[in-house]
Amino acid sequence: MLMTKARRSALAAALAVCSLGCPYAQAQTQTTKPVKFSKADLGGAVFNRKDAQKSVEGGTQMTDVVGFTSPDKAYQTGVFKSGPSHEVIKGPQGLAYTEFLYFLSGGVKLTSSDGSVLNVGTGEAVTLPKGWTGQFDTEGYTKLYVTYSPDDAKQ
Questions:
Q1: pTM of the entire structure?
Q2: What pLDDT shows up at residue 7?
């Protein structure tokens, strides 16, 4: 089918506007790249970065460096360091997200609400499912983490 000059002009104008303002067109021009924590980062250098979030809660010093957050905010990775702490995660909702933890140093004692105890140390990993309740006790640790919370994607 042949296009008239007016239709070609209208199509060209629509394409020009879309290339400037359409999210789909913009997404095609952005390159998605891998996110890496180097050996030096995981050895502690990551906590010296400008984007390291330092905080103190209940007298415990903590530092968090987010490596990646998905566009829908449901999935996140990072490195976290904490001093000694005791945290109670109560029901009925329990832990608000699922978290995978790999301990680079230190460890935790996890006491589930049924009284069962799990100790996780350096070089070991654990997954805390959404809804877990219990106590989280540590003398301090550094962890590589992954969190997943589909509820965050809904916000």
A1: 0.78
A2: 43
Structure tokens belonging to residue 106: 């230190």
For 63, the token pair is: 């530092």
Kindly report, residue by residue over 13-22, the tens digit of the pLDDT.
Answer: 433 334 444 4
**Do 67 and 11 lie in a common domain?**
no
Tally of structural domains, the chain: 2
Look at residue 58 in the predicted model and tell me its pLDDT: 87
* Nearest CA-CA partner of 106 in 124, 123, 122: 122
Task: Give me Rg for the CA atoms of the chain.
Answer: 23
- Both 102 and 44 in one domain: the answer is yes
Range of the domain at 45: 39-153
46 and 24 in a single domain? The answer is no
pLDDT per position as a tens digit, 75-90: 999 999 999 999 999 9
CA distances from 102 to 29, 79, 99, 126, 147 (A): 35, 10, 10, 7, 12
Q: Tell me: do 134 and 85 sit in the same domain.
A: yes
